[in-house]
Amino acid sequence: MKMSEESTCQEFARIIGGQAGFAGGKCVATISREDINATIMGKRFRVTTSFSYESRDKCGSALCLGRIALLQKEVAGFVSAIINEGIEVSSIHNEWLFDDPNLIYVNIEDVDDPLNFARKVRRALRCL
């Protein structure tokens, strides 16, 4: 990735409140949900939430995605907040059997300037 892409990725992660990284040529910001003490099959599970962008066009818009790990009681508030920001909710599902507490994942998607997307996500995350 070019230096400008690296600095954009760092800013993307900073706005969201996560740690920046690159995976498969895309920028990824990861947030650890340290507030959730979860287990799967009785073993400790570190809960993470991630946001990414890739495929920027000439105007700076990109495919922006998110995978948010939530407690059941957080789902309705977050979904409402993210929809109010104009971001699409593409799925709501659980991923694990025998998890405690039961974790729900919300996937989101948008085509936007990555930093604008990050600001929208940050506002929506305030409800958690």
> Which oligomerization state do the chains in this entry correspond to?
single chain
Give a count of the beta strands, DSSP E runs of length 2 or more.
Answer: 9
Number of helices: 3
N→C terminal distance: 33 Å
Return the structural class: alpha+beta
User: What is Rg?
Assistant: 15 Å
Largest sheet features: 6 strands, antiparallel
Order of strands, main sheet, comes to 1-2-5-6-9-7
Number of domains: 1
Mean pLDDT across all amino acids: 95
Helix coverage percent: 25-40%
The helix-strand sequence is HEEEEEEHEEEH
Strand proportion: 35-45%
Q: Residue ranges: pLDDT <50 for 5 or more in a row? A: none
Overall 3D shape: globular
Description of the molecule:
It comes from Fictibacillus phosphorivorans. This is Cytoplasmic protein. It holds the Pfam family DUF1529. The protein has 128 residues and is α+β, with helices and mostly antiparallel strands. It has one domain (3-125). It contains 3 helices and 9 strands. It has helices at 3-16, 72-84, 114-125; strands at 19-23, 26-32, 38-40, 43-45, 48-54, 62-71, 88-93, 99-100, 103-112. The strands form 2 sheets. A 6-stranded antiparallel sheet has the order 1-2-5-6-9-7. A hairpin with a 2-residue loop joins β3 (38-40) and β4 (43-45). α2 packs across α3. It is globular and about 45 Å long. The model has no long low-confidence stretch (mean pLDDT 95).
